[in-house]
């Protein structure tokens, strides 16, 4: 059993996202950006859209960025849980380190298969927070591995912020705004940090069925209780302790979208972009299309971070539900 | 009413596909290529796969190449029918020329909407060959427009061949083989021409429910009667008069795949490549996975042309059927 050492923590800043990007650049995919004149034309403000296709990232989601950067800051040993298990297992495999994953026993089969395919050792737990914490503790005690949190951690946030840095390099013109979905808040907080000084206004997108972040922002205090009824399975997580204040300080607004709006946005993206986009990835586009955003009168180009493309294709698509 | 003039026809040769490519290069998308180590590892010969994503082409399919080149060879006026209507309407719109389209009255709504959205004038006909020919003649008589055939025409074939030229430029290593689906045979014949002198072995993929080309090759004579019962709606067309002898001469073999194999390949591509791929586009990958191909023992890299991504998302996906 190998003990791991961690590098000194970086500050939560734009400069740190740049360091993260330099660190993981050679390990990640530089995912392409997509535009669609039809989708742009359908918006009241006709914003030119630049979709950042993180569904084409390794592991099928932006999570690989945070996982890669987190791993790069460890010398050995790690442990994953939750949604980013696939990304972490893959990043660990590519670095040749052992990965242990704790997953709820009702996880979708493709997700379990992917994690297993990347060579990680899975321990299943009951699908609730208490069982997960207990199993996690047991696995850590047994293996001595280091826990790599899926969103509520400095390195994860910095890694996720690199998607926007890349998008800003790729977009042929300056963006007026950027949208990222918010579940745990790793992607949105990272995006907000990375946007510093760029003049890009940062917006979040959250499903109405799990809108703890938007509620917390209204109330000035992170909510710890969360309902989570939404098709956007990646966004059911409550926003993290580290993530919330960054969002509070740097994100202009978190737009709340209904599952119907998300499903409609998802279908439009599949039809027009020809990309398999998961509901969480479509939520950000749904927010761009929302009256709430369009009424702000922003007419410039808008970036949309497609968080991922991990859809369970053994289930009917959401617009059939 | 404007009379159109056509340039002198180019010979059916590799050199002509190169001319076609130079001509249309600035009008088309240079579509990206995709790899997947998981999909490659699943093959008995572990061929490295390079998918040419023509589903990301303008209009959502390779058809835009042939339509663009055909239009470039006209001075004005044109008329479309059939499957390539969307591509032609879009190419015509971009060139600012008037487009008339004849479509069967049972065409899928998204297809009709797309054609209309590109500003073409649609005349509907009964969904059979006789009605189509009669309507086509009537529209031509009324408008004086030039008919642009969807596959059985020199310029269409040359334009479609440019997808392989581009793939060969993009692939980081020489290909051992390339697969293209065959319906009317524009893409496969063009691919075969473009492959000349490259050392790439060319294979076709045809659904068992519409395998007139494979049958014709066995019998040494193009079949004119075709059944057409397959989920691969783009491949229901009988192979064309010009196309067949090119395929006969230059394609090593046309592999026949079942609809089940195509649906399975399609699902794998959606899951792993995160691309919306139409059944016709998946047929080529199904053929790569087939025992018939894998038993040839080719171990080198294989190109797979994803013909398009025009899927009717209002219908259940094929693996639910």
Characteristic terms for this protein:
321 residues, alpha/beta, homodimer, Rossmann fold, 3-stranded parallel beta sheet, 6-stranded mixed beta sheet
Q: How would you summarize what this structure contains?
A:
2 copies of one chain form a homodimer. By secondary structure, the first copy, chain A, is α/β, with parallel strands linked by helices. Chain A has 13 helices and 9 strands.
Question: Which helices and strands occur, and which strands form pairs?
Answer:
Two copies of one chain form a homodimer.
Chain A: H1 14-24, E1 33-34, H2 37-41, E2 49-53, H3 63-72, E3 78-81, H4 85-95, E4 99-104, H5 109-117, E5 121-125, H6 129-143, H7 154-170, E6 177-181, H8 186-194, E7 201-207, H9 212-219, H10 243-250, E8 253-257, H11 259-273, H12 279-289, H13 291-294, E9 302-306
Parallel strand pairs in A: 2-9, 3-4, 4-5, 6-7, 6-9, 7-8
Antiparallel strand pairs in A: 1-2
Organism (chains A, B): Daedalea quercina L-15889
Domain Tryptophan synthase beta chain-like PALP (chains A, B): 25-308
Protein name (chains A, B): Tryptophan synthase beta subunit-like PLP-dependent enzyme
Major β-sheet strand ordering of chain A: 1-2-9-6-7-8
Largest beta-sheet details of chain A: 6 strands, mixed
Q: Report the principal-axis shape of chain A.
A: globular
Main interface: chain pair and counts: A-B, 23 and 23 residues
Mean pLDDT of chain A: 91
Low-confidence stretches of chain A: none
What features would you describe in this structure?
The structure is a homodimer of 321-residue chains. With 321 residues, chain A is an alpha/beta fold. Chain A folds into 2 domains: 14-61 and 153-320, 3-Layer(aba) Sandwich (Rossmann fold); 63-143, Rossmann fold (3-Layer(aba) Sandwich). Helices cover 41% and strands 14% of the residues of chain A. In chain A, the strands form 2 sheets. A 6-stranded mixed beta sheet of chain A has the order 1-2-9-6-7-8. Chain A has a 3-stranded parallel beta sheet with strand order 3-4-5, with helices on both faces. In chain A, helix 1 (14-24) packs across helix 7, helix 3 packs across helix 4 (85-95) and helix 4 runs parallel beside helix 5 (109-117). The longest helix of chain A is centred in the middle third of the chain and has 17 residues, at 154-170.
